[in-house]
Design a protein that fits this description.
mainly beta; 34 strands; about 40% strand
């Protein structure tokens, strides 16, 4: 059960990035009031040179050098207008056409050029698709503002493999092919989970009667719902969880596209990324196996957790399944230090003493950020490079008490000028709203 819970948590961590940006921590949703909207945000290069003025309530990165820029409501410092802007990393504002009486939400697909990860558009490609909003519902239009799917959908997921899953308010789900612009019904007798609503290898997990299987791009069941949980396919294999006979324990197994378990019976697997999976033989110790289920790291670790390289947008999250982790946190016993090791078993460096063994560092611009708990309730932040050497805090020469920087995209930083929290508390008082944190 611990393995399953841990994997569920990683899925949930990804959702906040995959489906736009997470709601701010200090907020009052009833009135659409968010503390961070009262701060001013802009974009700079990594040396602090201005790209976009620090004037906006929020900015999010959506890949291909494109940023969605929110506009502040003139009626309330802590609220945003429905309409958003689209600006690229070269400071070019892109004109986005949407149907009448609707507003732009995001670029759903950049057309055929979307396959080129280096492509940064100065204008919306002719074959691109736009996600728009009207009266609280979502739809899809072409680059000229012509409606392809009307605004009658509660949710529109990300495009993967030229397919996007859309969901009505009543829960009915369909598959829209962005290349052929055809819509297909999903007939699986169940529902596709929001946490896994993207195709990989032509398959997507679905749930039916508390069991999980896979649906293909035609909307039909490819692998019947017979597993306790399913993860995304990559290169013909996927991690699933199965229940023990007494239904008290879960085990991780690897299945092929036919739904057949291909991993050895004696192994319980987790953390399947790229060519490697964490494997346990049931003796409380784990190692690392390759796609042939041969141990490349022997099962002698009580802790073996992947640490991923930096990611900035939804595509980065989904592509992570196909790539090996940056390294692994590893520990052989509670008396041994936690170390960073490569899949080949090479010790890269020792994790600072006091770091939370279950906490993963954030990684931006090849700098690892660790929280060190040498004193209760008083964590210290330590910054390391990939050799384990301590380095200065990123942007320490630019930041101040009220000005913060953080990397938001490759080579781009988000600059934030924080406003007084007392102004925000006064605004909450006007609405008799209690702050949630």
């Amino acid at each position: 059960m611990k393995v399953l819970l841990k994997l569920h948590l990683y899925c949930l961590l990804a959702i906040g990035l995959v489906f736009s940006w997470a709601k701010p921590s200090g907020s009052c949703d009833i009135f659409g009031i968010h503390k961070e909207f009262g701060d001013d945000h802009g974009l700079t290069d990594m040396k602090g040179r201005k790209l976009i003025p620090t004037l906006f309530p929020a900015i999010s990165y959506c890949g291909h050098g494109l940023f969605v820029v929110y506009q502040r409501s003139p009626k309330n410092l802590y609220s945003c207008l429905p309409e958003r802007l689209l600006i690229n990393r070269n400071k070019v504002k892109l004109e986005v056409l949407v149907p009448p009486k609707s507003v732009f939400r995001e670029v759903l697909w950049l057309g055929k050029k979307a396959a080129d990860s280096t492509f940064v558009p100065d204008k919306i490609p002719d074959d691109a698709l736009i996600k728009f909003c009207s009266k609280g519902n979502y739809g899809i239009s072409d680059s000229k503002g012509n409606i392809l799917l009307p605004a009658e959908y509660y949710f529109i997921a990300n495009v993967r493999e030229s397919k996007v899953i859309v969901q009505h308010k009543d829960g009915r789900q369909q598959i829209f092919d962005v290349a052929t612009r055809q819509l297909k019904e999903i007939n699986c007798g169940g529902k596709i989970s929001v946490s896994n609503m993207c195709f990989n290898d032509g398959l997507v997990p679905f749930e039916q009667d508390k069991l999980h299987g896979y649906v293909d791009t035609k909307g039909k069941v490819a692998i019947p719902a017979s597993f306790h949980w399913c993860f995304t396919f990559h290169r013909g294999l996927a991690l699933v969880n199965v229940l023990s006979e007494d239904r008290k324990t879960t085990y991780g197994k690897i299945v092929d596209r036919e739904g057949r378990i291909v991993s050895p019976r004696e192994l319980s697997l987790s953390e399947f990324y790229g060519d490697y999976a964490v494997a346990s033989t049931g003796r409380g110790k784990s190692g690392l196996v390759n796609r042939k289920f041969q141990f490349v790291l022997p099962p002698e670790y009580t802790l073996l957790t992947p640490v991923w390289s930096e990611y900035y947008c939804a595509d980065d999250i989904w592509n992570r399944n196909n790539c090996p982790p940056l390294f692994y946190h590893a520990q052989k016993s509670e008396y041994d230090p936690i170390v960073a090791i490569s899949p080949k078993g090479e010790t890269l460096f020792v994790i600072p003493k006091g770091a939370n063994k279950n906490g993963l560092p954030t990684v931006f611009n090849v700098v690892l950020t660790y929280k060190i708990w040498n004193y209760p309730n008083l964590p210290e932040t330590v910054y390391l490079n990939l050799k384990g050497e301590q380095v200065p805090e990123p942007f320490h020469k630019l930041s101040s008490e009220t000005i913060r920087y953080r990397q938001i995209a490759p080579g781009i930083a988000l600059k934030t000028i924080e406003k007084s929290k007392y102004l925000f508390l006064e605004e909450l008082d006007k609405h008799s709203c209690v702050i949630r944190r």
